Amino acid sequence: MIAASVVLEDGVVIHHPDLVNLYGCRVGSGSRIGTFVEIQRNAVIGRHCKISSHTFICEGVTVEDGVFVGHGVMFTNDLHPRAVNPDGSLQTDADWTMVPTTVKRGASIGSHATILAGVTIGYWSHDRRGRRRHPRCAGPFRRRWRPGQGRGPHQGCAR
Amino acid sequence: MIAASVVLEDGVVIHHPDLVNLYGCRVGSGSRIGTFVEIQRNAVIGRHCKISSHTFICEGVTVEDGVFVGHGVMFTNDLHPRAVNPDGSLQTDADWTMVPTTVKRGASIGSHATILAGVTIGYWSHDRRGRRRHPRCAGPFRRRWRPGQGRGPHQGCAR
Amino acid sequence: MIAASVVLEDGVVIHHPDLVNLYGCRVGSGSRIGTFVEIQRNAVIGRHCKISSHTFICEGVTVEDGVFVGHGVMFTNDLHPRAVNPDGSLQTDADWTMVPTTVKRGASIGSHATILAGVTIGYWSHDRRGRRRHPRCAGPFRRRWRPGQGRGPHQGCAR
């Protein structure tokens, strides 16, 4: 389902609109959205992006232009998620702090990655597959590629 | 699809009933089920739970009240899954031992976690995100929070 | 959706054809396909396989007979995925090298596994759950089972 609240710019490709769940988000021109993808309200996808199947992009995520997001990638926006408060009452928006995440222009996120809330993924950064990102940028994101290496300059994690 | 065999108590919220696959399970009052979720027969979800998108809950799983299950969480109930027997014949129920799993009241399971069959996840336990649970409770589940720490008392893994 | 280009042999079981995305692939007789599964063109699934829910099987993957693929398994076929070229233009098929993957007869792939492009997963090989496979066969794939051990002979990774 693509809710009426979604803004799709020119040339967005969604082969199976009945098998996605998009609401309140914006998708830039020429981007492609795979099946079984959910994109929540207040998420922004740039132009010429590829969002692969089975991926979840939550509120508070900004994906800049030309980004590749692999299959089965899960973004998060809450470092301490709970269904209820200690007294058993249902949590409301007042019990929750949304932590934003940004994926910079040209980055590539491998399939099955889990993106911890609060990360900034750098320009043209690239992981091989399924690595986990967190604010301290441990793991492959510490690696810095020289310009011309791989398929584009890499500036690592911007934090 | 929500099969006729499903028992939904009062106030269950499922925004897209056409984009879930629920059959033979029970969901307690006030719980919320995200899109692209499958819940199998003989699974039980308590009251005031939140089951996030892209999650799979299999037969033999009991989720108590007030539990948060993140996005893309996979439960399992078979430690030695196979499609066929060594002679090539299809496996049947006689070739399979179902191993039950319990998630205790108030627990929070981070996005992308994989839950190995046979785990008991303790009252109000909490992982940051995507850790893997197994019967020996290695990793963050060994950690014990003092009462009042985080957002509720934590008793670690009950095993 | 099951596209007209899909070849389903006799006795294939797909409980919810509206909740899968199959196109240009072949599925062998007696195999079962779960919900929220995507199988791309030029992927081949053998006979008597079980492909569990939330799994993605991409172009270039060959799954032989009698294979179990768990829930939420992501195959890949590109070691350097990008949405765009360094000049910002959209990538086309000319910018991409497809790397094939084979899963040999009788193998079992645990839920949430990520399969790096180029792997060959050996006859009757078995992981417990969610391990990551890569061409050097690190991790549990190094383990060799003796004939009769487990539920079938294991030859490890064929590479």
Describe, in short, the structure shown.
Three copies of one chain form a homotrimer. The first copy, chain A, is mainly β and 159 residues long.
Description:
The structure is a homotrimer of 159-residue chains. Chain A has 159 residues and is mainly beta. Helix content of chain A is 0%, strand content 23%. Chain A contains no helices and 17 strands. The first copy, chain A, has strands at residues 7-8, 13-14, 21-22, 26-27, 32-33, 38-39, 44-45, 50-51, 56-57, 61-63, 68-69, 74-75, 101-103, 108-109, 114-115, 120-121, 132-133. In chain A, strands 1-4-7-10-13-16 form a six-stranded parallel sheet, with no helix packed on it. The radius of gyration of chain A is 16 Å and the shape is globular. The model of chain A is unreliable at 128-159 (pLDDT under 50). Chains in contact: A-B, A-C, B-C. Chains A and B meet through loops of A and loops of B.
Strand proportion of chain A: 15-25%
Report the C-alpha radius of gyration of chain A, rounded: 16 Å
> Count the helices of chain A. How many?
0
Q: Please give the share of residues in helix of chain A.
A: under 10%
Question: What is the strand arrangement across the widest sheet of chain A?
Answer: 1-4-7-10-13-16
Poorly predicted runs of chain A are 128-159
| Net shape of chain A | globular
Largest interface: A-B, 25 and 32 residues
Instruction: Measure the end-to-end span of chain A.
Output: 35 Å
Average pLDDT score of chain A: 81
What oligomeric assembly is this protein in? Answer: homotrimer
Question: How many beta-strand runs of chain A?
Answer: 17
Q: What series of H and E elements makes up the topology of chain A?
A: EEEEEEEEEEEEEEEEE
Largest sheet of chain A: 6 strands, parallel
